[in-house]
Amino acid sequence: MRLLLVEDDNHVAAALSAVLARHGFDVTHARSGEEALQALVPEGDGFGVVLLDLGLPDQDGYEVCGKIRKRTSTPVIMVTARSDVRSRIHGLNLGADDYVVKPYDTGELLARIHAVSRRTVHEDAAHGEDSSLRLGPVLIELPTRQVTVDGSVIQLTRKEFDLLALLAQRPGVVFRREQIISEVWRTSWEGTGRTLEVHVASLRAKLRMPALIETVRGVGYRLVAPAS
Questions:
Q1: Gap between the Cα atoms of 226 and 228, Å rounded
Q2: How many helices (H) and strands (E) does the chain have?
Q3: Which of 2, 11, 67, 68 has a Cα at 20 to 30 A from 42?
Q4: Are 163 and 203 in contact (CB under 8 A)?
Q5: What is the pTM assigned to this prediction?
Q6: With pLDDT > 70 as the criterion, what percentage of the chain qualifies?
Q7: What is residue 78's three-state secondary structure?
Q8: Helix or strand or coil: residue 216?
Q9: Interhelix angle for 192-207 vs 158-168, to 10°?
Q10: Dihedral of alpha carbons 103, 8, 89, 68, sign
Protein backbone atom coordinates (compact mmCIF):
# COMPACT_ATOMS: atom_id res chain seq x y z
CA MET A 1 0.00 0.00 0.00
CA ARG A 2 1.18 3.52 -0.80
CA LEU A 3 1.03 5.85 2.21
CA LEU A 4 1.47 9.62 2.34
CA LEU A 5 3.19 10.70 5.56
CA VAL A 6 2.74 14.40 6.30
CA GLU A 7 5.28 15.27 9.00
CA ASP A 8 7.59 18.29 9.29
CA ASP A 9 10.05 16.66 11.72
CA ASN A 10 12.55 14.77 9.56
CA HIS A 11 13.80 12.61 12.44
CA VAL A 12 10.30 11.49 13.37
CA ALA A 13 9.43 10.92 9.71
CA ALA A 14 12.57 8.87 9.07
CA ALA A 15 11.97 6.60 12.06
CA LEU A 16 8.29 6.11 11.26
CA SER A 17 8.98 5.59 7.55
CA ALA A 18 11.45 2.82 8.42
CA VAL A 19 8.86 1.06 10.58
CA LEU A 20 6.16 1.40 7.93
CA ALA A 21 8.50 0.15 5.22
CA ARG A 22 9.26 -2.97 7.27
CA HIS A 23 5.52 -3.66 7.31
CA GLY A 24 5.19 -3.38 3.54
CA PHE A 25 4.19 0.26 3.06
CA ASP A 26 5.55 2.41 0.23
CA VAL A 27 5.94 5.74 2.05
CA THR A 28 6.00 9.19 0.45
CA HIS A 29 7.10 11.91 2.87
CA ALA A 30 5.64 15.43 2.67
CA ARG A 31 7.14 18.06 5.01
CA SER A 32 4.38 20.66 4.73
CA GLY A 33 0.72 21.03 3.94
CA GLU A 34 1.48 22.33 0.47
CA GLU A 35 3.76 19.37 -0.31
CA ALA A 36 1.00 17.02 0.82
CA LEU A 37 -1.63 18.68 -1.37
CA GLN A 38 0.70 18.61 -4.37
CA ALA A 39 1.35 14.90 -3.82
CA LEU A 40 -2.39 14.26 -3.90
CA VAL A 41 -2.85 15.73 -7.38
CA PRO A 42 -4.57 14.29 -9.31
CA GLU A 43 -7.16 12.28 -7.41
CA GLY A 44 -5.02 11.05 -4.56
CA ASP A 45 -2.28 9.64 -6.83
CA GLY A 46 -3.00 6.10 -5.69
CA PHE A 47 -2.39 6.55 -1.96
CA GLY A 48 -4.18 4.11 0.33
CA VAL A 49 -3.92 6.28 3.47
CA VAL A 50 -2.77 9.77 4.47
CA LEU A 51 -1.06 10.02 7.87
CA LEU A 52 -1.43 13.69 8.75
CA ASP A 53 0.44 15.44 11.55
CA LEU A 54 -1.39 18.60 12.65
CA GLY A 55 1.66 20.66 13.63
CA LEU A 56 2.80 21.77 10.17
CA PRO A 57 4.98 24.81 9.40
CA ASP A 58 2.92 26.40 6.62
CA GLN A 59 -0.73 25.54 7.33
CA ASP A 60 -2.83 24.29 10.20
CA GLY A 61 -3.30 20.54 9.91
CA TYR A 62 -7.07 20.89 10.23
CA GLU A 63 -7.07 23.22 7.22
CA VAL A 64 -4.99 20.73 5.26
CA CYS A 65 -7.41 17.93 6.15
CA GLY A 66 -10.33 19.94 4.81
CA LYS A 67 -8.49 20.60 1.55
CA ILE A 68 -7.53 16.93 1.20
CA ARG A 69 -11.13 15.86 1.66
CA LYS A 70 -12.23 18.21 -1.13
CA ARG A 71 -9.72 16.60 -3.50
CA THR A 72 -9.96 12.91 -2.67
CA SER A 73 -11.77 10.32 -0.56
CA THR A 74 -8.44 8.75 0.48
CA PRO A 75 -8.65 7.87 4.20
CA VAL A 76 -6.96 10.41 6.51
CA ILE A 77 -5.60 9.55 9.96
CA MET A 78 -4.72 12.61 12.04
CA VAL A 79 -1.70 12.30 14.31
CA THR A 80 -1.33 14.91 17.04
CA ALA A 81 -0.56 15.65 20.67
CA ARG A 82 -3.97 17.37 21.04
CA SER A 83 -5.88 14.83 23.10
CA ASP A 84 -9.01 16.76 24.14
CA VAL A 85 -12.36 15.54 22.85
CA ARG A 86 -13.19 18.84 21.14
CA SER A 87 -10.07 18.57 18.96
CA ARG A 88 -10.97 15.01 18.03
CA ILE A 89 -14.52 16.00 17.13
CA HIS A 90 -13.26 18.92 15.04
CA GLY A 91 -10.87 16.66 13.14
CA LEU A 92 -13.46 13.99 12.47
CA ASN A 93 -16.00 16.59 11.41
CA LEU A 94 -13.56 17.87 8.80
CA GLY A 95 -13.51 14.44 7.23
CA ALA A 96 -10.72 12.59 9.02
CA ASP A 97 -11.32 8.84 9.26
CA ASP A 98 -9.41 8.34 12.52
CA TYR A 99 -7.45 10.29 15.12
CA VAL A 100 -4.29 9.06 16.89
CA VAL A 101 -2.86 10.88 19.91
CA LYS A 102 0.90 11.13 20.55
CA PRO A 103 2.66 9.31 22.05
CA TYR A 104 1.17 6.25 20.41
CA ASP A 105 2.06 2.60 20.23
CA THR A 106 3.35 1.65 16.78
CA GLY A 107 1.29 -1.52 16.79
CA GLU A 108 -1.88 0.47 17.43
CA LEU A 109 -1.03 2.89 14.63
CA LEU A 110 -0.51 0.02 12.18
CA ALA A 111 -3.80 -1.54 13.26
CA ARG A 112 -5.64 1.74 12.69
CA ILE A 113 -4.08 2.14 9.23
CA HIS A 114 -5.22 -1.33 8.24
CA ALA A 115 -8.66 -0.72 9.78
CA VAL A 116 -9.41 2.43 7.77
CA SER A 117 -8.12 0.70 4.64
CA ARG A 118 -10.49 -2.23 5.16
CA ARG A 119 -13.39 0.14 5.79
CA THR A 120 -12.68 2.02 2.56
CA VAL A 121 -12.64 -1.16 0.49
CA HIS A 122 -15.88 -2.33 2.15
CA GLU A 123 -17.64 1.01 1.63
CA ASP A 124 -16.53 1.33 -1.99
CA ALA A 125 -17.77 -2.18 -2.71
CA ALA A 126 -21.06 -1.57 -0.91
CA HIS A 127 -21.68 1.61 -2.89
CA GLY A 128 -20.39 0.26 -6.16
CA GLU A 129 -23.76 -0.81 -7.48
CA ASP A 130 -25.59 1.48 -9.90
CA SER A 131 -28.25 2.80 -7.56
CA SER A 132 -29.58 5.98 -6.01
CA LEU A 133 -32.03 7.00 -3.32
CA ARG A 134 -34.72 9.65 -3.89
CA LEU A 135 -36.27 11.40 -0.88
CA GLY A 136 -38.45 14.23 -2.11
CA PRO A 137 -36.08 16.92 -3.41
CA VAL A 138 -33.04 14.99 -2.10
CA LEU A 139 -31.20 12.64 -4.46
CA ILE A 140 -28.45 10.43 -3.04
CA GLU A 141 -26.28 8.80 -5.72
CA LEU A 142 -24.44 5.92 -4.07
CA PRO A 143 -21.90 5.06 -6.80
CA THR A 144 -20.62 8.65 -7.09
CA ARG A 145 -21.29 9.56 -3.44
CA GLN A 146 -23.03 12.73 -4.58
CA VAL A 147 -26.02 14.40 -2.94
CA THR A 148 -28.23 17.00 -4.60
CA VAL A 149 -31.20 19.00 -3.32
CA ASP A 150 -33.49 20.33 -6.05
CA GLY A 151 -30.67 19.70 -8.50
CA SER A 152 -28.01 21.61 -6.54
CA VAL A 153 -24.97 19.62 -5.40
CA ILE A 154 -24.41 19.60 -1.62
CA GLN A 155 -20.81 19.17 -0.48
CA LEU A 156 -20.66 16.55 2.28
CA THR A 157 -17.75 15.02 4.15
CA ARG A 158 -17.18 11.28 3.85
CA LYS A 159 -18.86 10.51 7.16
CA GLU A 160 -21.77 12.89 6.53
CA PHE A 161 -22.51 11.03 3.31
CA ASP A 162 -22.21 7.62 5.00
CA LEU A 163 -24.55 8.72 7.79
CA LEU A 164 -27.15 10.12 5.38
CA ALA A 165 -26.97 7.06 3.12
CA LEU A 166 -27.46 4.73 6.09
CA LEU A 167 -30.56 6.53 7.35
CA ALA A 168 -31.96 7.00 3.84
CA GLN A 169 -31.89 3.29 3.07
CA ARG A 170 -34.73 2.75 5.58
CA PRO A 171 -36.80 5.97 5.90
CA GLY A 172 -38.94 6.07 9.02
CA VAL A 173 -36.94 3.36 10.79
CA VAL A 174 -35.25 4.40 14.04
CA PHE A 175 -31.51 3.68 14.08
CA ARG A 176 -30.04 3.34 17.56
CA ARG A 177 -27.05 5.58 18.27
CA GLU A 178 -24.85 2.56 18.96
CA GLN A 179 -25.87 1.01 15.64
CA ILE A 180 -25.07 4.18 13.69
CA ILE A 181 -21.70 4.56 15.37
CA SER A 182 -20.89 0.92 14.68
CA GLU A 183 -21.89 1.02 11.00
CA VAL A 184 -20.60 4.48 10.05
CA TRP A 185 -17.52 4.82 12.27
CA ARG A 186 -16.89 1.09 12.79
CA THR A 187 -16.08 1.70 16.42
CA SER A 188 -17.59 1.87 19.88
CA TRP A 189 -15.25 4.68 21.00
CA GLU A 190 -17.06 6.70 23.65
CA GLY A 191 -16.11 10.06 22.13
CA THR A 192 -17.91 9.20 18.89
CA GLY A 193 -21.31 9.86 20.48
CA ARG A 194 -20.71 13.59 20.46
CA THR A 195 -19.27 13.32 16.93
CA LEU A 196 -22.55 11.76 15.77
CA GLU A 197 -24.49 14.74 17.12
CA VAL A 198 -22.16 17.12 15.30
CA HIS A 199 -22.59 15.25 12.02
CA VAL A 200 -26.39 15.21 12.33
CA ALA A 201 -26.44 18.96 13.00
CA SER A 202 -24.12 19.57 10.05
CA LEU A 203 -26.31 17.52 7.71
CA ARG A 204 -29.43 19.40 8.77
CA ALA A 205 -27.69 22.70 8.09
CA LYS A 206 -26.10 21.76 4.77
CA LEU A 207 -29.28 20.23 3.37
CA ARG A 208 -31.32 23.15 4.77
CA MET A 209 -33.86 20.60 5.94
CA PRO A 210 -33.76 20.49 9.75
CA ALA A 211 -36.79 18.18 9.89
CA LEU A 212 -35.23 15.58 7.58
CA ILE A 213 -33.40 13.79 10.41
CA GLU A 214 -35.52 13.38 13.51
CA THR A 215 -34.03 12.83 16.96
CA VAL A 216 -35.73 10.03 18.86
CA ARG A 217 -34.93 10.96 22.44
CA GLY A 218 -32.99 8.33 24.33
CA VAL A 219 -32.78 6.03 21.31
CA GLY A 220 -31.25 7.48 18.17
CA TYR A 221 -32.27 9.03 14.85
CA ARG A 222 -34.58 8.36 11.90
CA LEU A 223 -34.98 9.94 8.52
CA VAL A 224 -38.37 11.47 7.78
CA ALA A 225 -38.93 11.36 4.02
CA PRO A 226 -40.12 14.78 2.79
CA ALA A 227 -43.01 15.20 0.39
CA SER A 228 -42.03 15.07 -3.28
A1: 6
A2: 8, 12
A3: 11
A4: yes
A5: 0.56
A6: 89
A7: strand
A8: strand
A9: 80
A10: negative
